[in-house]
TrEMBL record:
The keyword Transmembrane helix does not apply. Belongs to the ETF alpha-subunit/FixB family. Its cofactor is FAD. Residues 4-183 form the Electron transfer flavoprotein alpha/beta-subunit N-terminal domain. Keywords: Electron transport, FAD, Flavoprotein, Transport. This is Electron transfer flavoprotein subunit alpha.
Length: 322
């Protein structure tokens, strides 16, 4: 029986929502096509994480546990993936589209001498591979793509599928893996992590994004307050990351992060194509802008025309009452 293998992405001991989205889609495809859906966890605490996966319906769960995976280093992860693929022999290897999957997707495909399709927004099976859609040119064009091979390696944009909870009584199988220091050839010198205790932008269910009209500390405080009330991640347009008002890691768009939350609130953002490329997949888009002709209103589900400094304080007060 063929297997669809989802590679689970983990951050600080927590499964990333985007992995569960991919797993849910693989579960659906497997059950519709008489196949098995398997999940693979490569982590320093893989067996603990594997237990959590039993709430999300895979038929099989594989782990590769080793202290070397405490930090993402390409070489051991690639070796672990190759080991797992040789053992499981899946038809498809599916990753969530993350910084770390970007790092290994192409290398794994080269290693397996097979095809890779990255950053897909939907995917389905064909007789000998995968087909689907892939946004390109800042999401102006949705290309149809298809690849055959064994396995086909894909990555899937976050927010493309819903997470479906489903109990599973899958066995957890540990895959043998050895890795010596000599194989590493890399020395990890330092990790500089963001000091923010905010919700991770790429995983956030709600995103509040600030644009150039947020011009001073009062405006930034309003953005923080709105984000706190909604338990939202904070993002920004390039106008504000370039001005140094927000960290570059918070930039949303073509040259920043791609987000696809349930709710995106753009505050004083005009809706330039390069920004829209990073948020167009949001489920519900709310725009606050004083210019009624701002392009962001063309894609917004709800629009508030007016000055953010007048709109946000009562808006936040009302939200606090909920
Ligand atoms: P503006 O376009 O200046 O819009 C500000 C908006 O705020 C206006 O609509 C105005 O009406 C409104 N406003 C002002 N004051 C108020 C107020 N008090 N209350 C309410 N509304 C108010 N941009 C990105 O964001 N992400 C990217 O990844 C990105 N990549 C790029 C890549 C390239 C190659 C290039 C050329 C550009 C890129 N840009 C990117 C820049 C992009 O083209 C825009 O310049 C940028 O998105 C504009 O940011 P903004 O909407 O905040 O500012």
């Amino acid at each position: 029986m063929s297997t669809l293998l989802t590679v689970i992405s983990v951050n600080d001991g927590k499964i990333k929502r985007s992995s569960l989205e991919v797993l849910s889609r693989c579960n659906e495809l497997a059950s519709n096509n008489g196949m098995k859906s398997a999940a693979l966890v490569i982590d320093s605490k893989a067996s603990e994480i594997a237990e959590q996966l039993k709430n999300y319906g895979p038929d099989e769960i594989y782990t590769i546990e080793n202290p070397i995976f405490k930090n993402h280093l390409n070489t051991p992860v690639l070796k672990a993936l190759s080991t797992a693929v040789s053992q499981i022999n899946p038809k498809v290897v599916a990753f969530p589209s993350t910084e770390s999957s970007k790092d290994v997707l192409g290398a794994l495909a080269a290693n397996q001498q097979t095809a890779a399709l990255s950053d897909m927004s939907e995917f389905d099976l064909t007789d000998n591979g995968v087909k689907g859609k892939r946004p390109v040119m800042a999401s102006k064009i949705i290309s149809s793509v298809e690849a055959s091979g064994s396995p086909v390696i894909i990555s899937v944009r976050s927010g493309s599928y819903d997470v479906v909870e489903k109990e599973s009584n899958a066995n957890i199988e540990a895959i043998d893996f050895n890795f010596s220091d000599e194989e590493l050839q890399i020395t990890l010198k330092e990790i500089i992590s963001s000091s923010s205790d905010r919700v991770d932008l790429s995983e956030a269910e709600v995103v509040v994004a600030a644009g150039r009209g947020v011009k001073d500390e009062e405006g930034r405080n309003l953005i923080s307050e709105l984000a706190s009330v909604l338990n939202a991640g904070i993002g920004a347009s390039r106008a504000l990351t370039e001005a140094g008002d927000y960290d570059p890691s918070l930039q949303i768009g073509q040259t920043g992060k791609v987000v696809s939350p349930q709710l995106y609130i753009g505050v004083a953002i005009s809706g330039a194509i390069q920004h829209v490329a990073g948020m167009a997949n949001s489920k519900v888009i709310v725009a606050i802008n004083k210019d009624p002709d701002a392009p962001i209103f063309d894609i917004a589900d709800y629009g508030l025309v007016g000055d953010l400094y007048k709109i946000l304080p009562p808006f936040i007060e009302e939200l606090k009452k909920i």
